[in-house]
Amino acid sequence: MTDKEMKVERYREENKSALKGQTVFTGSSLMEMFPINKLLKERGDDTVIYNRGVGGFLSHELLAVIDVCAIDLQPSKVFINIGTNDLSWSSIPISQLTDNYDKIISAIENAVPDVKIYLMAYYPVNYEAASEEMKECLKIRTNEKITAANAEVKKLAEKHGQRYIDINRNLKDDRGRLKAEYTIEGMHINEDGYRAVYDDIMEYVREK
After folding, report:
1. Which secondary-structure segment (H or E) carries 38?
2. How high is the pLDDT of residue 208?
3. Hey, which residues does 50 pair with through a beta bridge?
4. Which of the residues 37, 186, 205, 207 could staple to 134 if both were Cys, CB 3.0 to 4.6 A apart?
5. How many CA atoms lie within 13 A of 152 on its CB side?
6. Torsion sign over Cα 107, 110, 112, 118
7. Structural domain boundaries of the chain?
8. 104-139: per-residue pLDDT in tens?
């Protein structure tokens, strides 16, 4: 069993005893690595958020298990950050990503009619602060490509009557890159980076 499959099976088990009608975070590693429950605990906040991110997921992989990663929890709100791994492959056009994303949204809406879905703007990257092994990937997954993909995600949100949200203001340096002090290797975000966006995302979690 792969690491991804093991995570999905763990989530499947955890879902059986989880509270329905709460908030779910879903997507790939940038969502999985969001230490949301640690940050909530630090603030003494008892908001229930289930993180169902799976590192390495491409959009079609999330679509295949969207029941486990969102629907089974019958959430009131779903925050999605999926597609950055698709953007790392020159062979995957943005249109293929948005087609899968469209299907993910529809699947959740059909199963949970009153759900509010928040489509998150992709986080920026920083080629200059990247580790050597990450630089090849970031030649493909550029901030220009991320901006283009964000425009398509925004259109998807409008099509579905859902919310496109951008919580990246505190992550960006004066050139629009991911701040060097907030990145692990040019792409993934460290805990301080997630702290920098915590208040902004929680405003959306709390809104009625």
Report:
1. helix 36-42
2. 86
3. 24
4. 186
5. 21
6. positive
7. 3-206
8. 999 999 999 999 999 999 999 999 999 999 999 999
Map residue 145 onto helix, strand or coil: helix
Place of tokens 């460290």: 190
At 97, the pLDDT band (50, 70, 90 cuts) reads very high
Give 137-162 pLDDT, tens digit per residue: 999 999 999 999 999 999 999 999 99
Q: Which residue has the tokens 């630090």?
A: 42
Q: Inter-axis angle of helices 143-160 and 94-111, to 10 degrees?
A: 30
CA-CA-CA-CA torsion sign (174, 122, 117, 52): negative
Read off the tokens for 123. Answer: 């986080």
The third-level CATH classification (topology) of the domain covering 3-206 is: Rossmann fold (3.40.50)
Question: Cβ contacts of residue 194 below 8 Å, gap of 6+?
Answer: 33, 34, 35, 36, 39
Q: Are the beta carbons of 167 and 121 closer than 8 angstroms?
A: yes
Cut 0.70: pTM above it: yes
